């Protein structure tokens, strides 16, 4: 039997403003037997009860889908042809409990256990950054400890937020404590702004992470940095976690905790394209908050960065 290869619905089959919005106008696959045929699944996690300032990421997955309708299949810059070799679909949203964080986290972990068990590489539409913790818990069960490429304005290594151990700013502290990460293969890119103490970013460095503060990225191409990143995180499975606030609010204003002096959209593309060749086992794009995204540009950017992640997954054909 020929391998099933779902294709995004073309603009000549249905106007791009028409139809029901799925990620990249791919089929929405719900049946377990059909999911088993997939290589990659776009999955939404509409959580925003982990945010600390402006909320709204519960609307992220829906709006990223809406802004993804113009993305066409072939990557003209890199030659990637993801739909020529991978079976990709939108597998819908995880039905989180929006009133109970502990329960939401459990539901997310269970959902990713199943996704991974079915052999699907998850590309996640967030949701606030809390969601990466239960995803990494599931990933550990499937792949063991992973390396991490983490793009963010913030380190997200707080011990607690308002006394809570689980929130969008504690994710990677918990991941280290729970032994989910191969700490010598972790890179954080784009960190900036102010700390509670002058040493705030050093907690990450003490774990063995390479911390690339935003200032180190200013005014230049990040292609050379990514050669160093591949050297650091290669040699095993890698997870990619992209907080949209890593990008400057000039381009990505629709987010909950914006910080000035961030990465450009071009640098964001260089980072993801620079992950080509890594053994990626999943990725997420988090912290898009549509109520603060008056033009839709933040969701548009998020949708395109998820497409770029798809293009660098293992097994993608290049033309
Ligand atoms: Mn974050
Ligand atoms: Mn952030």
TrEMBL record:
Molecular function GO labels: agmatinase activity; guanidinobutyrase activity; metal ion binding
Taxonomy, superkingdom: Bacteria
InterPro entries in the record: Agmatinase-rel, Ureohydrolase, Ureohydrolase_dom_sf, Ureohydrolase_Mn_BS
Keywords: Hydrolase, Manganese, Metal-binding
Annotated residues for binding of Mn(2+): 129, 152, 154, 156, 243, 245
Keyword Manganese: yes
UniProt remark on cofactor binding: Binds 2 manganese ions per subunit.
A GO BP entry: putrescine biosynthetic process from arginine, via agmatine
Cofactor field: Mn(2+)
EC code(s) of this entry: 3.5.3.11
Family, as annotated: Belongs to the arginase family. Agmatinase subfamily.
Protein name as it appears in the record: Agmatinase
Species of the source: Aquipseudomonas guryensis
